[in-house]
Specification:
By secondary structure, the protein is an alpha+beta fold. It is built from four helices and 16 strands. Helix content is 16%, strand content 36%. Strands 2-3-4-1-5-8-7-6 form an eight-stranded mixed sheet, with helices on one face.
């Protein structure tokens, strides 16, 4: 287990959880059974590899969220390694949670336990988007971002300079992409095109609005999350 714990979900704020759920369902995502941790409406959908947590609740969104047992005990070590927490809620009778920003202001959240049950469906990558690639974060200086993550024992599994400087970090099921590009200012979910070459045309046929971007076709979810399909 990494210092952050195990990947739990990409947490996304939504103002209409039904609308958001129906959007991902139409792409082929399936629901996971959620617990009663949160008092607000909450749903988790998955393509078998990626898990999206939809929260009808205001918070810095999106956030990459991890589950770390005995969270309170591990926070001092993370602080020693340079993490500065934006919030932490800990206590004997509390559901412990904490959150921090990376050097480029992207939110990461840590919870003491899972908030949904492991899925019982078989298979992966069964959504219309293809194979999930990475949680793509735009960064200003990739060397600075890499130095931050390396202090947390995360070394790049892949690194390159084209079409822009990038690095892919892997921690369990989470793939964090650091992309030094001026194309985007917000995180995106990046998928690899698989199956028919006309995947974007098939999405258009199913009623999805697909935009052409320098990174390839892209959809925007009801919450404003960008879903990129690499060509």
């Amino acid at each position: 287990m990494s210092l952050l714990g195990r990947f739990l979900e990409v947490s996304v704020q939504t103002s209409d959880i039904r609308e958001s759920s129906e959007f991902y369902e139409a792409l082929g995502f399936r629901h996971c059974a959620v617990g009663e941790t949160w008092p607000h409406p909450y749903a988790v959908l998955s393509d078998g590899r990626l898990f999206l947590g939809l929260h009808e609740y205001a918070f810095p969104s999106p956030a990459l969220t991890f589950a770390r047992p005995e969270l309170a005990r591990h926070l001092p070590e993370l602080e020693r390694r340079g993490v500065r927490f934006e919030f932490h809620k800990t206590g004997e009778h509390a559901f412990n949670e904490a959150g921090f920003l990376d050097p480029d202001g992207h939110m990461f959240a840590l919870l003491e336990a899972r908030t949904y049950s492991p899925p019982d469906f078989a298979g992966r990558d069964f959504s219309a988007l293809g194979t999930f690639g990475d949680y793509a974060l735009p960064v200003r200086l990739i060397e600075r971002s890499l130095a931050f993550w390396q202090r947390l024992d995360l070394a790049p599994a892949k690194q390159g300079a084209l079409p822009w400087p990038f690095a892919i970090l892997e921690t369990g099921e989470a793939r964090i992409g650091l992309h030094q590009t001026g194309e985007r200012s917000q995180p995106a979910l990046r998928f690899a095109r698989t199956g028919p070459a006309a995947r974007s045309e098939a999405l258009l046929d199913r009623g999805f609005a697909v935009d052409d971007t320098p990174s390839g076709p892209a959809l925007r979810s009801p919450e404003g999350l960008v879903l990129l399909i690499d060509t």
